[in-house]
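Entry:
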Amino acid sequence: MGNLLTKHEIARLTGAGAENAEEQKRILDANRIPYVLKKDRSPALTWEMVNQAILARGASKPDLAGVNLPPGFNLGAAS
């Protein structure tokens, strides 16, 4: 697996503040993006994990018009 996303990258991906791990986890869970928890209970994930979740939805480039994403979720940050 590749390198872990930084706190800044996770914040950009989820649209949640870098220090708001609970909101980040809620958004990742809602979009079925897997992650593991670090000792501080914040999510840790790689771009491979994000990409696999997108592919599992059945599209390599999702149609955001048909997807019900939570407010602030920035799937465009995954590309």
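Strands lie at 36-37, 43-44.
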